[in-house]
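Look over what follows to help learners.
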Amino acid sequence: MRRYGSGVHDVLDLIRERPDLREPLKGGEDYLRAEVVYAVEAEGARHLEDVLSRRTRITFETWDRGIAAAESAAALMAEPLGWTREQVEREVEYYRKGIEAERAAQEQDTDQEADAVQHGAPEIVPDIHVGRPGGRS
């Protein structure tokens, strides 16, 4: 809990309010379920990739880059974000595809080939531009 500094009390308050959050996150057992909810409610995380790679670092600290934790984390994020089951599934799928693209990029011979593979992964947030005719700004 040292990673939260003075914010540790906020994480502990979440656990007091919801004792189920004191359990380890399935697939990311070095983290508590409360840490995922805290990332959304206190830190403003809005996507699974953000929670697993930036807020908790599970992506970098687990052998499978957080794939096993993805569904559990997304399910915890659903309530505070008002996600439907379809949104949860979409976040998990985007996360998995991003990890697959990253792994495939690491197997390429050149940086250019790696970039091409990596940029083939779907974006979490659709690239929507408004303003000009044709949808581009």
